[in-house]
């Protein structure tokens, strides 16, 4: 399975800003007012697709949950980002899948599993084959209902190495016939050094509400919210970004 390439700061901040219309083509000019819509064209007409996978702690090949959260840049045309990108994160759509054949496997030793506590709608109890189809569909066109139209995707994860292993257990062909431009790992964007922090710590540092963690749907949403907030802070309030990043110790 060929995992999509990753970009890392500092150069990739400009790439993300361009995808969101927050920087000019050269990257030398950036948006300056979060109360106004993005002033530049949104590069590549992308869909941001955040995925989170939960596995049974005693056997990581047993994939129990999949969470998918999507921010479609078509949905934010003409919408001002707002403080910390809050207007944009309000457009995020999400789904939560639970393997209907593995509902008896709930984590409790190393983390507290919360499969029944999805905060953004109803969980979908389906067999593994349907979960695989949902993942492939999201990576092909996000939640765009015209499934015949393939979209450019920026995949968003927290802890790429871990998610890569779990995706391999779920579907070795997940990245066939898709246009995933690159992977954005919130662990990498949160700090300027090589330290890595958990999603809960990053959510707290950047004031992203994170209720009921270790539910794949909730974690997928928070991961995407955190990335959008970090990009917007870096663009409009760089001092605030670095202050929040410094809270991660």
TrEMBL record:
Pfam families: DEDDh_C (PF21762). It comes from the Eukaryota. GO terms for molecular function: nucleic acid binding. InterPro entries: Gfd2/YDR514C-like, Gfd2/YDR514C-like_C, RNaseH-like_sf, RNaseH_sf. Gene3D superfamilies: Ribonuclease H-like superfamily/Ribonuclease H. GO terms for cellular component: nucleus. Residues 47-230 form the Gfd2/YDR514C-like C-terminal domain. PANTHER family: GOOD FOR FULL DBP5 ACTIVITY PROTEIN 2 (PTHR28083). This is Gfd2/YDR514C-like C-terminal domain-containing protein. It comes from Elsinoe australis.
